[in-house]
Every structure is written in structure tokens, then in C-alpha cells.
Design goal:
Layout: H1 20-37, H2 41-52, H3 63-75, H4 79-91, H5 98-111, H6 113-129, H7 141-144, H8 146-158, H9 164-177, H10 187-195, E1 201-205, H11 211-222, E2 228-233, H12 236-248, E3 255-259, H13 262-268, E4 276-279, H14 286-293, E5 302-306, H15 308-312, H16 314-320, E6 327-332, E7 348-353
Parallel strand pairs: 1-2, 1-4, 2-3, 4-5
Antiparallel strand pairs: 5-7, 6-7
Helix pairs in contact: 1-2, 1-3, 2-3, 3-4, 3-5, 4-5, 5-6, 8-9, 8-12, 9-11, 13-14, 14-16
PPR repeats: 62-96
Pfam family, one: Methyltransf_24
Keywords: Catecholamine metabolism, Methyltransferase, S-adenosyl-L-methionine, Transferase
């Protein structure tokens, strides 16, 4: 029956009341819901994929399409598919309902430890955004973030508690002696230090183990103190370990680590008006997150974005072109051997300063 339903003509909007486009969206969602209730998760998933990819001229799926397909995958015990769709819906700036999150929680329960950290991270964000203490992680944090936990253990053994400079040195030693860390050290750290001014409020998107946050605190102290850092980290296990590293360095009063998607924290309105914005999470989201927080930035704000040419953030570069004073610095990735180990030139990364 859906195959016989006329899709919207090219150029027509995919939503509305009474018109063919709106009716077609309704028809797609009704069919997906029917598949979900019949336990036909493959058909529901295929319909969503067809709509998402624009096949047959179909409009893009909306929130109802995702909710019904997530439910269908859960009924069919396709736990990973349900979680993937939940994340995809959130990336599309849709807000899945309680039923979708309930399905995700069930998926985590049935999937065991493989999926628990994902929903726990979302729950932790919801608690913290509401000013509440989040529940404990479902499994030991060290099991969810082995490398990050190793960094914390190394720091505690190598650096005296409260010695920020020694903690940063220990993290560099870990990267050199144990395992490489994707942190903004070396030339990147110097670029961050160079843009800071006395009393700056720094917002960092992408905390990892807290290295850049501590670099910023160290510089702000040398400038006379008074500044602070807010760092958002999607991975809840990494965020908890970063808090421990920062606390060991004696900087807990100067750094707030927030668990959750940067876009969720921006939408919450709880990040204030930062003087410096550091983008070091996902290059594909740089332009979206900058656009979301731009109205909160003062005219004197400085924006640093890592890896804008390699791996690349072309949409971000397009968004700031002609609107910001831009400088692109080509620097090597911190302590990364790369092709140089094989006799070739090292692979540079780039950092844009707007």
C-alpha cells in the first residue's frame, strides 16, 4: 500500500497538514508503526533507512519514525541497532521520547556491559544538568576506559598531590613511555597559552583526561589567577577520570568537567559566556556547536579548533570564513611517531585560531 501512495513532488515540503507531503509522512510513520507492532523489525528499519537516504523521493524521517523503529528493534532484540538509532536521532537534533530511552535502557540490560556505559552517560548528563548527583557507573570506570585509568594511576604514582606542573609532566611522560595520548601538548599547548588573558573563562568541548584544561589553568595562574575552565566530555568514564586527575593536580576549584554532549550543555544555557572556546571533540560538529553558542560569545572571544584540515572540519571552516579573523597553524601531533618512524615525514595536524 505504501508503494502505491504518491510521494511528495520535488520541491514540496515534507511536513504539513492536509497536503500530500504531510499525508505521506503520516503514511510512512503509520507503516513503520504497523511493522513495529507486528514484530517486523527488518521492515521497519528498512523503511527508516529508505526515508533517511531519500530513496523514491521520500521525505526524511521525523521523530515518530525513529521512536517506532527503535521500539521495533528492541522488540526484535536488535540491541545495537536500537542504540545506534537513538544516537542517530540525537545527531539529527531530534529529541526521542521517554519510550525510546526506555528501549535503550532495556537494550543495555540485555546487551550486558557492552552498552551500559552509553545509557549511563546519558543518565549522568540528565542528573548533572538538573543539579543532581548522578548514579554510580554500572561497572568499574577502569573497565570502561582502560587507557584513561592507566593515566590516572601513573599520575598518582609519579606526581605529588597538588603539584599541577608535576601532573602535566607525568602525563607527558606517560605518552612518551607507556601509550600515546591524543592530547594538545607541545606546540598546540603553546598556542592555547598564547591566547589566554587574565581572568578568562575557557569553555573546552572535548576533555579526555583533562590535559588541556590543566594547561589552561597553569597559564591563567601565571597571569594572576581569577580565570576558570569548563570542559564538556561525552564519554562519562573519561570525564570521571579527568575529574580525578584535575583534583590530584589541585585544580578542582578552577575546572568543572561536565558529562554529556556539548550540544546538550549549550542548549541547557548553563555554560555562560566564555571568553575562549576550544573545539577538540568532533570536527563534524564544530560548525553546529559554534553556531549554537555564538550568541553567548562576547565580541572579544577567541575560538581555537583542533585538526581542522586533517582529519578536517570543512563545514566549520566554511562557517567562519569571512566572519572571523582566522589564522591556521600547521603543527605536528603531540608525540605521535606516525610515518616518520618508517622514514617518511611526520604527518602534521592543523589548528585554526579564529
Amino acid at each position: 500500500l505504501l508503494a502505491e501512495f504518491p510521494p511528495p513532488a520535488p520541491g514540496e515540503k515534507a511536513a504539513g497538514r492536509g497536503g500530500a507531503p504531510g499525508n505521506f509522512v503520516f503514511a510512512v510513520n503509520a507503516t513503520v508503526t504497523a511493522c513495529e507492532r507486528a514484530g517486523e523489525w527488518p521492515a521497519a528499519l528498512q523503511l527508516l533507512c529508505d526515508a533517511r537516504d531519500g530513496r523514491n523521493g521520500w521525505p526524511r524521517p521525523d521523530l515518530l519514525t525513529y521512536n517506532a523503529t527503535i521500539s521495533a528493534c528492541t522488540r526484535g532484540q536488535r540491541w545495537q541497532s536500537a542504540l545506534d538509532l537513538l544516537q542517530e536521532a540525537r545527531r539529527q537534533q531530534l529529541r526521542p521520547g521517554a519510550a525510546a530511552f526506555s528501549c535503550a535502557a532495556r537494550a543495555c540490560g540485555h546487551g550486558g556491559g557492552r552498552f551500559q556505559s552509553e545509557v549511563w552517560g546519558a543518565v549522568a548528563w540528565a542528573y548533572e544538568a538538573s543539579g543532581l548527583r548522578p548514579p554510580a557507573p554500572p561497572v568499574p570506570v577502569a573497565e570502561l576506559a582502560r587507557k584513561q585509568a592507566s593515566v590516572l594511576d601513573f599520575v598518582r604514582r609519579q606526581a605529588p598531590q597538588g603539584d599541577l606542573e608535576a601532573v602535566l609532566s607525568a602525563m607527558r611522560d606517560f605518552a612518551q613511555q607507556r601509550e600515546w595520548l591524543k592530547v594538545a601538548g607541545g606546540a598546540k599547548a603553546r598556542l592555547l597559552e598564547a591566547v589566554l588573558r587574565p581572568g578568562d573563562v575557557v569553555l573546552e568541548l572535548g576533555c579526555f583526561v583533562g590535559f588541556s584544561a590543566l594547561v589552561a589553568v597553569q597559564r591563567l595562574r601565571r597571569l594572576g589567577g581569577g580565570g576558570r575552565v569548563i570542559s564538556c566530555e561525552l564519554d562519562a568514564a573519561s570525564a570521571i577520570i579527568a575529574r580525578e586527575v584535575i583534583s590530584w593536580a589541585g585544580a578542582a576549584e578552577e575546572v568543572q568537567v561536565r558529562i554529556g554532549l556539548a550540544s546538550d550543555w549549550i542548549a541547557s544555557g548553563q555554560l555562560g559566556s566564555p571568553d575562549v572556546l576550544v573545539l577538540d571533540h568532533r570536527g563534524a560538529r564544530y560548525h553546529e556547536d559554534l553556531a549554537a553558542i555564538e550568541e553567548s560569545l562576547p565580541r572579544s572571544a577567541r575560538v581555537l579548533a583542533d585538526n581542522v584540515l586533517s582529519p578536517g572540519a570543512p563545514l566549520f571552516l566554511s562557517a567562519i570564513d569571512g566572519r572571523y579573523a582566522i589564522a591556521i597553524h600547521e603543527v605536528d601531533e603531540f608525540m605521535r611517531a606516525g610515518p616518520a618512524a618508517a622514514g617518511g615525514p611526520s604527518a602534521p595536524k592543523q589548528l585554526a585560531f579564529a
